Description:
Elements: H1 2-19, E1 56-58, E2 65-66, E3 69-70, E4 87-88, E5 90-92, E6 108-113, E7 132-133, E8 139-142, E9 145-150, E10 155-161, E11 165-171, E12 175-183, E13 195-204, E14 207-214, E15 221-229, E16 235-240, E17 262-265, E18 268-276, E19 281-289, H2 293-303, H3 309-324, E20 327-330, H4 333-346, E21 351-352, E22 359-361, E23 367-369, E24 376-377, E25 379-380, H5 381-384, H6 388-395, H7 397-413, E26 422-424, E27 427-428, H8 437-446, H9 454-465, H10 473-479, H11 490-510, H12 514-523, E28 531-532, E29 537-538, H13 567-570, H14 578-584, H15 588-600, E30 619-620, E31 623-624, H16 644-657, H17 673-683, E32 685-686, E33 694-697, E34 704-708, E35 714-720, E36 728-734, E37 737-738, E38 743-745, H18 746-750, E39 753-760
Parallel strand pairs: 35-39
Antiparallel strand pairs: 1-5, 2-3, 4-7, 6-12, 8-9, 9-10, 10-11, 11-19, 12-18, 13-14, 13-17, 14-15, 15-19, 16-18, 20-34, 21-24, 22-23, 25-26, 26-27, 28-29, 30-31, 32-33, 33-38, 34-35, 36-37, 36-39
Amino acid sequence: MKKILTVLFSAVAFIAAAQNPPTENLVQYVRPIIGTQRMGHVYPGATVPFGMVQLSPETDTVSYDLNGHYNPDVYKYCAGYQYDDKTIVGFSHTHFSGTGHSDLGDFLVMPTIGKLMLNPGTADKPGSGYRSGFSHDNEVSQANYYKVKLDASGIIAEMTTSARVGFHQYTFPKSDDAHIIFDLMAGIYNYPDKNVWVYLRRVNDSTVAGYRITNGWARTRTLYFAMTFNRPFIQMGYKNFSKREVYGGFWGKFNRAKNFPEIAGRQLKTWFDFKTTEGEKIKIKVAISPVSIEGALNNMQAEIPGWDFEKVKADGEQMWETELHKIVIEGSKDDKENFYTSMYHAMINPTVYMDADGQYKGLDQQVHHADGFTNYTTFSLWDTHRALHPLFNIIETKRNADMVQSMLAHFDQSPEHMLPIWSNSANENWCMSGYHSVAVLADAVVKGNAPFDANKALDAAVATANHRDYESIGDFNDMGYIPDEKDGNSVSSTLEYAYDDWAIAQMAKKLNRTDVYDTFIKRSANWKNVFDPQSGFMHPKEADGTWRKTKFDPFTTIGMGFIEGNAWNYTLYVPHDVPGLINAMGGNKRFVIYIDSLFSYDLPDKYFAETEDITKDGIIGNYVHGNEPSHHDAYLYDWTDKPWKTQDKIRMILKKMYKNTPDGLGGNDDTGQMSAWYIFSALGFYPVAPGSDQYAIGSPSVYHATLNLENGKTFTINVENQSDKNVYVQKILLNGKPLDGYFIGHADIMNGGEITFVMGAKHR
């Protein structure tokens, strides 16, 4: 009886809490350090939501180049930070979060005492340079705050940010030889020729400003800065690490080594000297701008005019509280840490890319003004079109519309007249396949989140999809598939183009553009041209219409016609026509067996040993959750007579692939896609085909959730009988009425209301 009363009391208390939720501090559950080890490639530093400045430690200086070739070790440093490293070389202001390629790492700052050293030294001998040992015991990583003790000097390093300004606070011991090193050579995926040019000038006795031009993943990138101290420096100096330049002009008339008012070169490091008392805080603000030195100075004045570090920290934390409260969940501490860390990671990118006054640099390298929208960059669209942007269409509607407008501005400024593929910092990187920006545009238009010229968006999508000389689009349009001998990614690109074309068709249908719809809905069926009914797999096809004559291995990721995946996984990549795929694969029974085998087959290590992107941690059987092409696979059971298998697989993936530990991600977060999958799946539904207004039902892991929508409405998720064992949905009620089937519509969410999942230990 006592046990029954306890259970009843707990249930009543939970219902009361759900109906009258307290205003909870959600930032406490954010663990930026999750995913920093191994494949996570996220960084633990300070940033505000979608901030242009992402201020974080660098733990080594590995070069992209090794004896004239790619250095595989550099891949570990996509975000600059490795949890297993024992030293820190400094703190820089720009980073990518969870990408499988990299750039940035601008404007590295490092405080030191004693003899001035301008070489970072080596990890095994940190005393040989300015790098310092550190311990995770003396490290704090929170939303918009990072703190660490530098063992070499005893300096306490703290940092926080606004959108465009990094704020450093270094607590020094007593020293007559205190230095702030400002390394203008440092970068991520660095190599000797990456720096094209650096310029710095002294504004006054406590402020310098300048710019850096780099040629990396973004091949033409200029970033301006302004750096100011809370007290005058005693002196400043620099060293040029360039090899002898052919022409240096007549600057030798001056002694420029110390206190010269301007410096320029390719490989520069500067320093600033101070004398400090015990416990004295040297504070530094570094503002950045894509436009000008004046823009950087104005950004600093607009965002952090004073020197109150705690206020800036608190303001940034409040920004995160506002964002995190867009979804309020009930669950265990572990669940909350996983969920809100995922929310945090999902709201780092894309990043603001304009000054406080609205000016930004475009792809045409001209200065533009963002009229009526915020301009964004860092569009990793091969990844984020799947779940991140659909998530934004629910909880970040204004921001996602601004991101679409940024993509349309990209199109207008693009010399190739294409929408972004993978864009960053006024550059197109052309990374990965497909033209998935069209799916982001279509998802916004179909779901009614289009406060922009939707017909212009459709025209831009059509122009991009018809750009014949980009990655075999001409062959795809002419032949209905990409021939194996023409393209190493012939099969996966055919599948991706077919899906993207379906998304264009949905946008055209919404806008009553029948001619466009007819063309692109026909092209969306081209996936059938690379499905081999005899083998049961998507298969490379040669230009003469025959299947590849050389060996075909459906488990191999290299040389089989697929990008970052094998045939087993990619065969299920027809998210826009699941019924058609089921029919092609032999019907319901055979389709279920195929998905079952995906999860049950034990993929030998040799099949992923050759890839950088995949480790055993990101694989369940032959299902690769650590990479995006499979993210919808577990939801495909919803189209069969075994939807309960979706529920079982989703709860298994949530437990295995997401943990609140430094190696807690099963793969690269890929600027938020991995985290967006978690958020959707924990809530109980997922956008299998962005561009559709439909979500497939899974198995919620939360106890309760409230989505606080920007239109002022709320959508509530109730979960009855929630437990680790009760993973199967027994009944679903939508606004009190039984749900027919395993799908809900976008309007069901955005109109407000509630969905109730009744869970049990046995499937229906």
